[in-house]
Amino acid sequence: MIEMKGIKKAFNRNVVLNNVEFTLLDGEIHALMGENGAGKSTMMKILAGIYSRDEGDVLVDGQSYTFTSAKDAESLGIHVIHQELNILPHLSVAENLFLGKEKTIGRTGFLRTREMNKEAQTLLAKLGLHIDVRQPAGSLSVGKQQLIEIAKAINSEAKYIVMDEPTAALTDREIETLFDTIRELKAKGLSFVYISHRMEEIFAICDRITILRDGEYVGVREISKTSFDEIVKMMVGRELGERYPSRDAKIGEVALEVKGLTCPAVCKDINFQIRKGEILAFAGLMGAGRTEVAQAIFGNLKKSKGDIFIHGEKVTIKSPIQAMKYGIGFVTEDRKTEGLVLDFSIKENMFLTNLKSIAKGSFIQAQQEQLQATKYIEQLNIRCSDATQSVGSLSGGNQQKVVIAKWLSTKPDILILDEPTRGVDIGAKKEIYSIMNKLAEEGVAILMISSELPEVLGMADRVIVMHEGRQTAILDNVDLTQETIMNYATGGEEVVKN
Amino acid sequence: MLKTSSKEMLGKLGPLLGLFLIVIVITILNPSFMTTDNILNILRQVSISALIAFGMTFVILTGGIDLSVGSTLALTGAVAATMLASGIDPVLTILAALLLGAILGAVNGIIIAKGKVAPFIATLATMTIYRGLTLVYTDGRPVSDLGNEITFQMLGKGYFFGIPVPVCTMILAFIVLYVIMHKTTFGRRVYAVGGNEAASKLSGINVDRVKIAVYSLTGMLAALSALILTSRLNSAQPTAGTSYELDAIAAVVLGGTSLTGGKGWIFGTLVGALIIGVLNNGLNLIGVSSFFQQVVKGIVILIAVLIDRKKTA
């Protein structure tokens, strides 16, 4: 049995887990659920010895442990299977199974290949996998690779297996096989922590569920004694309050229309319109394909089908440069990898999108640059010493404002904001909302991708919900509830509209 | 370009301090180092490698590398030499050689940007190809009898107000390139691409065009070096420029430019090239054997990089 008690974890001064409880009994399958950023991964990383805890206790069979590495945790039988599988595609199945635990002739380093192959074959057969263990692991389907990960865990005598979104890339049939395997192992006394956003799976396979929200422990329920509705409420239940400033924007004609947008393997048949002055939100879970839709519109991701119309005119957009010509701006999801040049100063970042605005011919006008940058710093209330400060040293919220300034300098008609307030503190969040409102009032059409449901409800005029690459609903934000959105986002049963 | 704190400034001036230190030590060991003739001699030698290193700085700032510069030098030098030998106008020859250099560089850039080949691999291949083409073109023999056209002779052997023309060329190139790097939109894009390629692309910067441009520029500067070298030697050797890419990379690194791109400046490269030039000359003067010189040069590069690591850590 594993007990985690009063777990607290902070990165810098940002508390991500606060007094969280979690108990995993022997021979149970325990779901861990919560919105993105609720702290599930951090929690499991603490259990796996990847992160250290600031406060609290981890007990295995009643004895307290402090893990300093993943090896420590593994020696007690705790094994994590990450969403990105840890399979080396060019090594054989057997070599993968014995990675780091190779059987050798004495201490010579010579491998007992035949013996390992034989053992691997037996082990996999027990899991119902009848394949040649000498073939490269990369040639197997993702479902089979998933089973190999489980076999790896069993091979290292795991008693507790944590699975993070194990079914994200599996077909229905592979999911069935996986579930059969999990149930069989459970009958033998193994325990599983099952992290998933898919409600139906949790009801199909789990015994109990623990719910986290904003790094806090919400509660634990027996699956047989709870309901879909109760779980959703526990996950999202918080008050909106005054966090979202009101706006008075006139909604005008259609600025952007997307018809039948399809990108191989990530999104299919997306259709929508955004009008001038409107904020349209894309809701859904991580990996639902929302970012990809935005990237495809912006010409940074190749689309296989679909048309884009700007102000009613059909356009071809194959690169960000073309998208910008049509007045589209794109505040990307990850400001560090896609938004900013971290070694650059604030002003150097601000005009990367529009160097012409601060240059005469090819020459940058230093004074003009400084002046314009200072203007944006004041307008967006960016807290910094001055425009020459390096953006790498700014807080998340202020970095995000620099990214927004980058796009304001292009005077966009259509602005896409992908998770505009991720990793941003509450105060800066509200400021970013105000900037968005002001832009909408000025007639900019705004497409906001957000995984935070309160933000979606607080800001959007309309909401598109996506689930696994498909658009499952377009909803007017009138009497709309988080439950309704969550329902569409998890692919649950359609609820009756109030 | 960036406003820097005094600590950063000290870091930036580190290579310069290193240069002074080396100069002082060598002067103490052999005072004849510090004569006008010797200094001008060093500068003239440095000019050829510095021009290549200037181009390399742009390439490395974008996060790339160009191993083909030495071969580009050989090929453009050979072509220029044969043009002169067959009596073609020297000005036309110079322009043709520069154009050829730019084209050879552009080929690198296109392979790297459009073909998405790692710069190291792409230019390793073209290094071999360009060298091979030179050997084919010259049949492995030096090209000489370049005639006595004063315009071309001046390029390598002339003086301008007592300063060797190659040195003037180097200084002029330095000024122009400094301005391009730090004062123009192109320079800004070069830094941006090296600092964060994904963000640059998503900011509407034509990343491919920037890359092709820096490799072209480097090819052209290699051709300029070739012209100076050919003029000085009054012949073109098919093996000219062998391992020049390593000296150029060493100069860039000594100057404090980061091999991962996005950080660095051309002034540092000038200092780096001078350090290598001074070492080459000074070690000779103080009687270090030519075999041992290589060891010393390598150690100096290592020390410089280690100090740089400490600074950034």
Descriptive report:
- With 498 residues, chain A is of the alpha/beta class.
- Chain A folds into 2 domains: 2-236, Rossmann fold, CATH 3.40.50; 254-489, 3-Layer(aba) Sandwich (Rossmann fold).
- Chain A has helices spanning 40-47, 70-75, 93-97, 113-126, 142-155, 172-187, 199-205, 228-236, 290-297, 320-325, 335-339, 346-350, 366-379, 396-408, 426-441, 453-459, 482-489, and strands at residues 2-11, 14-24, 29-33, 55-60, 63-65, 78-81, 160-164, 191-195, 208-213, 216-222, 254-263, 267-275, 279-284, 305-310, 313-315, 328-331, 359-360, 363-364, 414-418, 445-449, 462-467, 470-476.
- In chain A, strands 6-7-8-3-9-10 form a 6-stranded mixed sheet, with helices on both faces.
- In chain A, β21 (462-467) and β22 (470-476) form a beta hairpin.
- In chain A, α8 (228-236) crosses α17 (482-489).
- The longest helix of chain A is centred in the middle third of the chain and has 16 residues, at 172-187.
- Chain A is globular and about 75 Å long.
- Chain A starts with a strand and ends in a 9-residue tail after the last helix.
- Residues 494-498 of chain A have low confidence and may be disordered.
- Chain B is mostly helical.
- Chain B has a domain at 39-242 and 257-263.
- Chain B has 13 helices and 2 strands.
- Chain B has helices spanning 6-29, 36-61, 69-85, 90-113, 119-138, 150-157, 165-183, 185-195, 197-202, 207-233, 244-254, 266-285, 290-312; strands at residues 159-160, 163-164.
- In chain B, strands 1-2 form a two-stranded antiparallel ribbon.
- In chain B, α1 (6-29) packs parallel to α12 and α11 crosses α12.
- Chain B starts with 5 loop residues before the first helix and ends with a helix.
- The interface between A and B is medium-sized, with 30 and 24 residues.
- Chain A: Residues 2-239, 249-493 form the ABC transporter domain.
- Chain A: It comes from Solibacillus merdavium.
- Chain A: GO terms for molecular function: ATP binding.
- Chain A: Pfam families: ABC_tran.
- Chain A: This is Sugar ABC transporter ATP-binding protein.
